[in-house]
Write a structure and sequence with these properties.
With 271 residues, this protein is of the alpha/beta class. It contains 12 helices and 9 strands. The model has no long low-confidence stretch (mean pLDDT 94).
Length: 271
């Protein structure tokens, strides 16, 4: 059986040519994060990142929402990932939901969040972990942890400010306000804003554009961007010299030069 044809708890997996589409599938709870989603998402993302056929990954949510974050009912009842006292909860976070940011941060394949509806709390953070976000006037982001007496235990303080900057991230974290549609686009939460009826088509267009570029260069450029954000100039320059040395001797690079010379689209093989 093909890996992607398996049944993954609370995650729908669809391979479309060189694209992998992942749908959080817990719609009755607005795709709240569960152990099932954590486990399924981790397994599929790690496999896909080593699959040379996959050039871009899209993450979205089933139903009307992207992801509502943590399960409020489980929090109140102290069940599932929210059972136990302080130190046990600390370990549950480390071994549970924090595996999502650690996995996504290690992924070299470009990831797009197709944010249909609300992305609240950990759902907002999940969208920020992705490389690009596309949404509509119905899309809502909220870093709402402090409204329920919590902090972003899944790494939101790291990812949010990387997307919108320190000042806006602080504002979102301390107010818990919602940012919708154009407002979300204006502050950088969305890369692309489109109509509800065009969300799927525009996401497919974006995924195809990314997948059409040279895969080795794409993955190295993504890695270099993330490392350069966190480190000093010399570290970044040393890394870029190494990565450029590798990419400049790939078959895809020479294919691009030949295609430009002959005024035709390049055909990249990921080699």
């Amino acid at each position: 059986m093909d890996f992607y044809s398996q049944q993954f708890p609370q995650l729908l997996v669809q391979k479309k040519s060189n694209q992998l589409w992942l749908t959080l599938n817990n719609p009755d709870q607005s795709n709240a994060i569960t152990y099932e989603i954590i486990d399924s998402l981790g397994k599929v993302l790690k496999h896909a990142d080593f699959d040379p056929e996959i050039r871009v990954i899209v993450i979205t949510g089933a139903g009307k929402n992207f992801c509502s974050g943590g399960d409020i009912k489980a929090m109140a009842e102290k069940t599932g990932m929210f059972q136990g006292e302080g130190n046990e909860l600390r370990m549950r976070y480390q071994q549970g939901i924090q595996q999502i940011p650690k996995t996504i941060e290690d992924i070299s394949t470009p990831i797009i969040a197709m944010v249909n509806g609300a992305a609240i709390g950990a759902g907002c953070d999940l969208a920020m972990m992705c490389d690009m976000r596309i949404g509509t006037t119905s899309t809502k982001f909220g870093e709402t942890f402090t409204k329920i007496g919590l902090i972003p235990g899944d790494g939101g303080t790291f990812f949010l400010q990387r997307v919108v900057g320190y000042a806006k991230a602080m504002e979102m974290t301390l107010t818990g306000d919602l940012y919708e549609g154009q407002k979300a686009k204006d502050c950088g939460l969305l890369n692309i804003l489109t109509d509800d009826t065009q969300l799927l088509a525009e996401t497919e267009k974006l995924a195809a554009k990314i997948a059409a570029n040279a895969p080795v260069a794409q993955s190295m450029a993504k890695k270099a961007m993330k490392i350069s954000y966190l480190h000093d100039l010399q570290t970044s320059l040393d890394l870029l010299a190494a990565f450029q040395g590798i990419t400049q001797r790939t078959q895809d690079h020479f294919e691009a030069l030949e295609a430009a010379k002959n005024k035709r689209p390049p055909s990249f093989k990921g080699q």
